[in-house]
Amino acid sequence: MTTPPGIDILQLHNDADRDGITRLVAGAILHADGRVLVLRRSAEDDFMAGIEELPSGAVEPGENLLTALERELAEEIAWSGAFTLDPGFVTHFDYIYGSGRKTRQYIFAVPHQGQPIALSREHTAYRWLHPTDLTESDLTPETAQAIRAWAAS
Ligand SMILES: Nc1nc2c([nH]c(=O)n2[C@H]2C[C@H](O)[C@@H](COP(=O)(O)OP(=O)(O)OP(=O)(O)O)O2)c(=O)[nH]1
């Protein structure tokens, strides 16, 4: 994947370092016809069990935000092949992960172009959610806010 115009990946990494972030997560607002793909975490997950979330996951050693996103989309929804990011859109939210690591999830927008979605065991269901229906979801307030920011962009 190539970096789209208006998104400086190195700058995002630098901003996170500057802000004392020690764990980075890449997430995707995968959208089709104005709706956003949300996944339900397994009820057996020992962490945030059963909530809805965006396809996302932590950046591992040797990866950057984009290569991590590519891997996570492959792992979580079985997306293979190239995909593009919408130019210019990136948002983020911060939280403390389990043992106290300062985490930042950076969220990019990815147009869905008909690729089939197949879930891993991490998630039990998916659906396409319109931003006007955010209050009827089990998304966290932070994720809902990110989707609102995307809808307003
Ligand atoms: N811990 C935590 N998670 C939050 C908060 N707010 C919020 O939206 N989340 C969401 C972001 C993610 O969708 C999910 C946590 O995912 P994560 O990537 O940090 O953790 P994980 O258990 O999936 O970690 P991993 O398997 O990728 O290593 O919860 C919060 O305040 N604390």
Automatic annotation (TrEMBL):
Pfam families assigned: NUDIX
Top enzyme category: hydrolase
SUPFAM superfamilies per UniProt: Nudix
Reactions catalysed: 8-oxo-dGTP + H2O = 8-oxo-dGMP + diphosphate + H(+)
A Gene Ontology biological process term: DNA replication
Leader peptide range in chain numbering: none
Keywords of the record: DNA damage, DNA repair, DNA replication, Hydrolase, Magnesium, Metal-binding, Mutator protein
GO terms of molecular function: 8-oxo-7,8-dihydrodeoxyguanosine triphosphate pyrophosphatase activity; 8-oxo-7,8-dihydroguanosine triphosphate pyrophosphatase activity; 8-oxo-dGDP phosphatase activity; 8-oxo-GDP phosphatase activity; metal ion binding
Source organism superkingdom: Bacteria
Domain Nudix hydrolase: 21-153
InterPro entries: MutT-like, NUDIX_hydrolase-like_dom_sf, NUDIX_hydrolase_dom
Cofactor: Mg(2+)
EC assignment: 3.6.1.55
Keyword Calcium: no
Family: Belongs to the Nudix hydrolase family.
Protein name: 8-oxo-dGTP diphosphatase
The organism of origin for this protein: Actinomadura geliboluensis
